[in-house]
Write a structure and sequence with these properties.
The complex is a heterodimer of chains A (399) and B (295). Chain A is an alpha/beta fold. Chain A has 2 domains: 49-164 and 303-366, Rossmann fold (3-Layer(aba) Sandwich); 167-294 and 377-396, 3-Layer(aba) Sandwich (Rossmann fold), CATH 3.40.50.2300. Chain A has helices at 6-26, 62-78, 99-111, 123-136, 166-180, 192-207, 227-236, 247-259, 278-283, 303-316, 322-337, 344-352, and strands spanning 49-55, 82-83, 86-94, 116-119, 140-142, 159-161, 183-188, 211-216, 240-244, 267-271, 291-294, 365-366, 372-373, 376-383, 388-396. In chain A, helix 5 (166-180) packs parallel to helix 6 (192-207) and helix 11 (322-337) packs across helix 12. Chain B has one domain (2-289): ABC transporter involved in vitamin B12 uptake, BtuC, CATH 1.10.3470. Chain B is mainly α. In chain B, strands 1-2 form a two-stranded antiparallel ribbon. Chain B is globular. Chain B is built from 10 helices and 2 strands; from the N terminus they run H-H-H-H-E-E-H-H-H-H-H-H. The chains are: A alpha/beta (399), B mainly alpha (295).
Chain lengths: 399, 295
């Protein structure tokens, strides 16, 4: 038996490497749930409804999915399992990490003729399923995905959003940052969300008189070492840094920003996802002093939020995150909309009729693109009684 | 030139730190493939297992050096056991070609990844460097985390140790002989089963060791296993199979590409690593250092 030569091995390894890359990109995720026929009865006032919850229960976004499911279920519990006076049957399907798993999940829910779908973390999935929801006339309430187009250029009567758009969150921070710094260095993960965020920030920051000293976009999902980028920030001479990172990248960036000594010399601004939920606790002390913009923090001092935080803590023994609130508010929106009927067009009419949603983040209504017309907060990471918290510094005025 | 060196020196040092971490992963991968002809795609899971071991033993509070060393030793032991186990389960299909091995070990990697997320959740877990090395050192006026310097020192000691074992001892020459022609080594009366299990265990132990060592830098989170595995495979392709110096050169090269390269041409950051691999495959298909010890 002849042994293959060494170069043949190298080729095999190279080929399999490519295979692993593809597998890693494809992500994994299983479809759960059974094939119950959705009860899509006539629109008498008490007919039950089926709501599909499309959230990631596997993969890197699973922590977000868990928070969203908890938020949605909390509202159901507080209302005897009903939305709009109708009993709700919840159908949870795993969104996974990418559109590869998210789009089939959405199609499955549409086929089951659910009355509405709530969830979706990944913007690619959200944009990918938009047409399918419009054609099937099934209302979709997006409770996270932040792509600007969802409620902008590609808005639809059947697509609503209780979360945010990447550009708006960042744009709210621009004028405020310009008060403290003349020049900024932009750094964001190199994908749509990062680009939209820096574009939004840059627009309002330069309008307010600031200048951009430089920008860098580390590869999304594969960068673990930020030292080369941090060195550029230091050498640029910028007064401040604005970033957009989420998940594991947020932790790595925040920690390395501190350990390479930038934390004490250059103020770090970011969209709030850098310091939200489990990510903040993992980043630890390195995150203190970071200032972010977001539409929620569990530290908001209002009776509505205090009551919500207590209920959430009682139910799940942890503080609510922005993701939980977004899904909670999606449930509130459906609660109002289902009073108008259960068919797709009826629910859309119901959603259009909504004046305000009594959210823990503060009351908000929907704008023309069906996104939330909401207040953004400037938050600063400080040491709280138990772990780190995002305290409210002030409300940001949106232009 | 001096000015250029001045502004990039810290980045280059950091590339070395990242490179020696890659070395701990790539060496095992390279030896196991070279000696046993088994492509172990569960290697990344061994690294992540080590990182989670660090989460359990060290945690994110400040710890003493002693606790950290304890975690490193535990990782060596657990890694060696896991490696021996992997060597057992892959043996029956060793003759069935690389695709079957890849499927089996990839399956094991998925199971391990699910177990980790069951045990540790899906959130990122960070590990604090031992208190004594937690601070920063000033290099040419730039702040640099002391722990990364420690990683460089440990990694280089490891490289020298591995080189000595492979190049200068009897066991090492048997391993080298097996890489060249395992059947001939068997024919000479050497029990290659023990040898192979030993190599597998050592390679796995090294990956788990790397997991603990790298935890304060790369944290521990789902998905880290595949990222590390891919980089390890790239290093193996670049460095050539079954050689310590190849793995070291490959790892240091990729370390520099990921640090200095990314710093100089950030626009092409995502292409640099695989671009380097493609270039090496084009020019020296059997790896940079393979020609000296061709089979």
């Amino acid at each position: 038996m002849r042994r293959p030569t060494r170069s043949r091995y190298a080729t095999v390894v190279a080929g399999l490497t490519a295979g692993v890359v593809l597998t890693a990109c494809g992500g994994s995720g299983s479809l759960g749930g059974d094939d119950d026929e959705a009860s899509n009865g006539a629109a008498d006032d008490t007919s039950p409804v089926t709501v599909g919850l499309l959230v990631p229960t596997s993969g890197v976004y699973a922590p977000l999915g868990e928070d969203m499911q908890q938020g949605f279920e909390l509202f159901l519990e507080q209302n005897d399992g009903q939305l709009g006076g109708r009993d709700v049957e919840l159908e949870v399907i795993d969104e996974g990490e990418t559109p590869d798993t998210g789009v089939p999940g959405a199609q499955r829910l549409i086929q089951q003729e659910v009355n509405a779908v709530v969830g979706i973390v990944n913007s690619g999935t959200a944009l990918g399923v938009r047409d399918a929801f419009e054609e099937a006339q099934v209302p979709l309430i997006i409770a996270n995905a932040g792509a600007d187009d969802i409620t902008g250029a590609r808005s639809s009567d059947y697509v609503w959003r209780t979360s945010f758009s990447n550009g708006e969150v960042a744009a709210a921070l621009g004028p405020r940052a310009a008060e403290d710094c003349e020049s900024v260095f932009l750094a964001a993960a190199d994908y749509a969300a990062g680009r939209e965020a820096t574009a939004g920030f840059e627009r309002t920051f330069t309008e307010a008189g600031g200048t951009v000293a430089g920008s860098v976009y580390p590869p999304f999902g594969t960068t673990t070492n930020y030292q080369p980028f941090l060195a550029q920030m230091q050498q640029s001479g910028a007064d401040c840094v604005y970033t957009f990172f989420a998940g594991a990248e947020a932790v790595a960036f925040t920690q390395q920003y501190a350990s390479f000594g930038l934390k004490d010399s250059i103020q770090l601004y970011s969209s709030g996802f850098l310091t939200e939920g489990g990510v903040l606790q993992a980043a630890g002390e390195a995150a203190t002093g970071v200032e972010t913009s977001l539409h929620y923090t569990d530290q908001i001092d209002s009776p509505r939020n205090t009551e919500f935080v207590e209920a959430y803590r009682t139910a799940y023994d942890e503080a609510p995150t922005v993701y939980a609130v977004q899904a909670y508010d999606a449930a509130q929106a459906l609660d109002q909309a289902f009073e108008n009927g259960t068919s797709g067009p009826d629910v859309v009419e119901g959603l259009k009729a909504i004046d305000t949603i009594d959210s823990p983040r503060g009351e908000f209504g929907f704008n023309e693109g069906h996104g939330p017309d909401q207040t953004y907060y400037l938050r600063r990471v400080e040491q709280g009684e138990v772990g780190l918290v995002n305290v409210v510094v002030e409300e940001l005025t949106t232009s | 030139m001096l000015g250029w060196l001045d502004s990039n020196l810290v980045t280059m040092i950091d590339g070395v730190a990242f490179g020696v971490l890659l070395f701990t992963i790539a060496l095992g991968l390279s030896l196991v493939f070279g000696v046993m002809d088994v492509l172990n795609l569960a290697h990344g899971a061994l690294y992540l297992g080590g990182a989670y071991l660090a989460v359990s033993i060290v945690g994110d509070g400040g710890s003493s050096v002693l606790v950290f060393v304890l975690a490193l030793l535990a990782a060596l032991a657990v890694g060696a056991l896991a490696g021996a186990g992997l060597s057992l389960v892959t043996r029956p299909i060793a003759h069935r070609g690389h695709l079957d091995q890849a499927l089996l070990t990839l399956g094991i990697a998925f199971v391990a990844a699910d177990l980790f997320s069951e045990l540790y959740g899906n959130d990122v877990k960070s590990v604090r460097a031992p208190a004594a090395f937690g601070g920063s050192t000033s290099i040419l006026g730039s702040t640099y985390p002391t722990y990364r310097l420690v990683v460089i020192a440990v990694g280089l000691v490891l490289a020298v140790g591995a080189w000595y074992v492979i190049e200068r001892t009897r066991v090492g020459s048997l391993v080298q002989a097996s890489v060249a022609d395992a059947q001939m080594v068997r024919a000479l009366g050497v029990n290659t089963t023990y040898l192979m299990t030993g190599v597998f265990a050592a390679g796995a132990a090294l990956a788990a060791f790397g997991g603990v060592l790298g935890a304060p830098i790369l944290s521990a989170s789902p998905g880290l296993d595949t990222r590390v595995l891919i980089l390890g495979l790239v290093v193996v392709v670049i460095g050539g199979l079954g050689s310590v110096s190849g793995a070291l050169v490959g790892a240091l090269l990729i370390g520099q590409v990921e640090a200095l390269g990314v710093s100089l041409v950030p626009t092409y950051a995502s292409f640099l690593t695989f671009g380097t691999m493609a270039l090496v495959l084009l020019l020296r298909p059997s790896g940079i250092l393979a020609s000296g010890r061709a089979a």
